[in-house]
Every structure is written in C-alpha cells, then in structure tokens.
Amino acid sequence: MASKRALVILAKGAEEMETVIPVDVMRRAGIKVTIAGLAGKDPVQCSRDVVICPDTSLEDAKKEGPYDVVVLPGGNLGAQNLSESAVVKEILKEQEKRKGLIAAICAGPTALLAHEIGFGSKVTTHPLAKDKMMNGSHYSYSESRVERDGQIVKAPLVLRD
C-alpha cells in the first residue's frame, strides 16, 4: 500500500507551531509530508520570527499532486496570504472536487472562505476569526475544538490547554 501524502502550504506570517507540530505528527505516523513555500523555495519568516525552510515551492508541489490532505496553518498574516493566492485557490478547489481532505488551523479557515471552499459545512476557528467566518451564511459555527464536516477538518488551535 502506498504511503499517504500531505501538503502543508507555508506562507509568510504562518503560525510556527501550527506548521511544525502537524508536520512532525504526520511524519511520525509515516505520512510523506511536503512543506511547500507559497512564495517559492526560500526560507519563510513565520509569525513569531521563526524561519522555516520549505521542502519545495508550491508551484512545484502542485505538479506532484494530488495529495491525501492539504493543510493550511493559521497565523493572521499567513492566512491572509493564503487567502490572496490564486494557486492556493486552485489546489483547494481541486482537493474539494476530488473529495480529498483539507485541514485548516486557527485562522486558516479564513482562506477557505476566501476561496469559497466547503460552503454549507460547520466551521470552527480561532475566536478572533469567528466574525469574519460568519459574515454571510456560508458556514455554521461550532465551538468544538476540532470540527470535521465531510472532507474538511478545522481546528481553532493546535495546542490544548
């Protein structure tokens, strides 16, 4: 059986832990994870000034798809950058069409809204992103720590208290 494959899209301003922890957990589980830089292969400065080196560019990673799961880390600036990317939109639309998993963390679900992904599903986010997500009637909000509705998984935070 072929190994599962995950694509983690890393944008400038992404939350470090929401990037590194899912990558670490998935790799420990035997999933082949590709960290793809939204703006290319250069190191990416995250929200707390940690710099992460992507494995490849998003453009190159797209050519290696499809993936079993596409992960969108949070971080306000990172989520905004994901929301403004036509390539991210294309990848998410294809993932949704083929019923592949999409995981969005913290502010990451705002990119789902921007790209019109998963309309009609339940969503959970970081509390500061709730109003943005609920502007319009595209989603129903859940206070759950993790919300899976169909093929889309959302979580307000990676860490538990």
Polypeptide structure, described:
The chain has 161 residues and is of the alpha/beta class. The chain has a single domain, classed as 3-Layer(aba) Sandwich (Rossmann fold). Helices cover 30% and strands 24% of the residues. It contains six helices and eleven strands. The strands form three sheets. It has a seven-stranded mixed beta sheet with strand order 5-2-1-6-7-11-10. The longest helix has 13 residues. The radius of gyration is 14 Å and the shape is globular. The termini are far apart. The model has no long low-confidence stretch (mean pLDDT 92).
Summarize the structure.
The protein has helices at 16-28, 58-63, 76-83, 86-97, 109-114, 130-133, and strands at residues 5-10, 32-37, 44-45, 51-52, 56-57, 69-72, 101-105, 122-123, 140-141, 147-149, 152-155. By secondary structure, the protein is an alpha/beta fold.
**What spatial form do the alpha-carbon principal axes imply?**
globular
Q: What would you call the structural class?
A: alpha/beta
What is the CATH-assigned architecture?
3-Layer(aba) Sandwich
User: Count of helices?
Assistant: 6
In CATH, the topology is named Rossmann fold
**Rg from C-alpha positions?**
14 Å
GO molecular function, one term: protein deglycase activity
GO cellular component, one term: endoplasmic reticulum
Subcellular location: Cell membrane; Cytoplasm; Endoplasmic reticulum; Membrane raft
Domain DJ-1/PfpI: 4-153
Give structural attributes.
161 residues, alpha/beta, 7-stranded mixed sheet
